[in-house]
Write a structure and sequence with these properties.
The protein is an all-alpha fold. The chain is 78% helix and 0% strand. The chain is built from 7 helices and no strands. α2 packs across α4, α3 runs antiparallel to α4 and α5 runs antiparallel to α6. The longest helix is centred in the last third of the chain and has 35 residues. The relative contact order is 0.14.
Length: 167
């Protein structure tokens, strides 16, 4: 059952990533790689959260590292910059429900400032959801850029064709 859920999660992440990628107009050869990276990253995050008991931030870090490393590898194969592949693949992992709950709690807090119990409840919800949202987005950024810094020469030479060596 978990394998089917992982497959479905990865499939819908791939569909979303293709949509996000279409907005930024990458070359057509990049779409299969974007879909593969998004599906693998989202499925890994889902698996780590459900099977291994990781929290959403740690699972997102691992998944974004996978996407960052995968975009280096696939970018070299199709001569495409890593950011063209990684950014659309990362976007389905942005925590939309936590961001929504953050804004909702803030609005409710503003409406219930006179009632201390209700205000405290909404302030707690705001802080919790804002912390999760910010930490997940931060982990997305860290995980996707660490491979670029680790493999700096490779990351910045992906779109250059190698000339034959002179002997």
């Amino acid at each position: 059952m978990i394998a089917a859920d992982m497959f479905i999660d990865g499939f819908f992440a791939a569909v979303a990533a293709i949509g996000f990628g279409a907005v930024s107009d990458p070359p057509l050869r990049a779409f299969p790689s974007i879909a593969l990276l998004a599906a693998a990253g989202h499925a890994l995050r889902f698996c780590l959260m459900t099977c291994a008991g990781f929290d959403i931030a740690a699972a997102t870090l691992c998944a974004s590292l996978l996407i960052g490393l995968g975009s280096l590898w696939l970018g070299g194969r199709i001569y495409c910059p890593t950011t063209v592949l990684s950014i659309p693949a990362l976007l389905p992992m942005v925590p939309g429900i936590y961001a929504y709950k953050t804004v909702f709690a803030l609005i409710m807090l503003m409406q219930h400032t006179a009632e201390s119990d209700a205000a405290r409840k909404y302030m707690d919800a705001f802080l919790l959801n804002a912390t999760v949202s910010v930490s997940v987005v931060f982990m997305l950024a860290v995980g996707s850029t660490v491979p670029i810094f680790l493999f700096r020469r490779r990351a910045f030479s992906l779109t250059r064709r190698r000339s034959p060596r002179k002997v």
